[in-house]
Design brief:
- It contains 8 helices and 7 strands; from the N terminus they run ββαβββββααααααα.
- By secondary structure, the chain is an alpha+beta fold.
- The protein folds into 2 domains: 101 residues, Beta-grasp domain (Ubiquitin-like (UB roll), Roll); 132 residues, Alpha-helical ferredoxin (Fumarate Reductase Iron-sulfur Protein, Chain B, domain 2, Orthogonal Bundle), CATH 1.10.1060.
- The protein starts with a strand and ends in an 8-residue tail after the last helix.
- Bound molecules: iron/sulfur cluster.
Length: 248
């Protein structure tokens, strides 16, 4: 039987040897149903080629570290099974819109820098309660979708705006910003949105929805961006009529 033998073509590049162009290495691996792309990569590294570089950790679609492009589409290697692919050739490439460090490992620093820009933590002004800050199940439901973001950066890799505008804040950061703006425990004022009221911020998105297609956790970053735009416009209208409670 040869129909369970797949060819894995993996893009190889080493930023320490920039004189060598990126090129594919091919590996033939026998695949059984249920095997994921990550399992195959681990096997290739253990048994065929110890020089192959990729990131992975939890193997359970929770840490987001094994994001890569699989047959042209960003996804998590740990949650992508091989057998359902019709083609017996699987092409693996690093996420686009990032500098490659080596093979499938990219430099995530720009992603984390943009994430930091939205202050991704609860901002409060009220005195801290003695115990936890209570949140009702209804209020928790409002942020469910955005809490699910595992910061894998698949959406960054799929984003057309990131391709031409590296300073764009990007879909994941906006999904997280909406998560905090909607969180009943967060007390940041609406004027926080002024920090992303520009072409590299909320108005940079072309609403092509590619981030939604790419997200392995069913987060909808474009919805977050549209929601944040609405909140910003409402805040601006209130401010124009002196109804925003702003006391600068
Ligand atoms: Fe990954 Fe989805 Fe979060 Fe983007 S929004 S970082 S694709 S989990």
């Amino acid at each position: 039987m040869t129909d369970d033998i797949y060819t894995f073509k993996v893009l190889r590049y080493d930023a320490k040897e920039p004189e060598k162009e990126a090129a594919f290495s091919s590996y033939r691996v026998r695949v059984i149903p249920g095997l994921t792309v990550l399992t195959v990569l681990l096997r290739i590294r253990d048994e065929l080629d110890g020089t192959l570089a990729f990131r992975s950790s939890c193997r359970a679609a929770t840490c987001g570290s094994c994001a890569m492009v699989i047959n042209g589409k960003p996804g998590l290697a740990c949650r992508t099974q091989v057998a359902p692919f019709e083609s017996r050739t699987i092409v693996l490439e690093p996420l686009p819109n990032f500098e490659i460090i080596r093979d499938l490992v990219v430099d995530m620093a720009p992603f984390w820098n943009m994430y930091e820009r939205i202050s991704p933590y609860l901002i409060r002004h009220s005195p801290a309660p003695e115990k936890e800050i209570i949140q009702s199940p209804e209020d928790r439901k409002r942020i469910d979708q955005f809490v699910n973001c595992i910061l894998c950066a698949c959406c960054y890799g799929a984003c057309e705006v990131m391709r031409r505008e590296p300073d764009y804040v990007g879909p994941a950061a906006f999904a997280k910003l909406q998560r905090f703006m909607l969180d009943s425990r967060d007390e940041r004022p609406d004027r926080f949105l002024e920090s992303v009221n520009n072409g590299q911020g909320l108005w940079g998105c072309d609403t092509l929805l590619r981030c939604i297609d790419a997200c392995p956790k069913e987060v909808r970053p474009t919805d977050a961006i549209v929601g944040l735009r609405k909140s910003l416009v409402k805040y601006r209208i209130k401010r124009a009529f002196g109804m925003d409670g702003h006391e600068d």
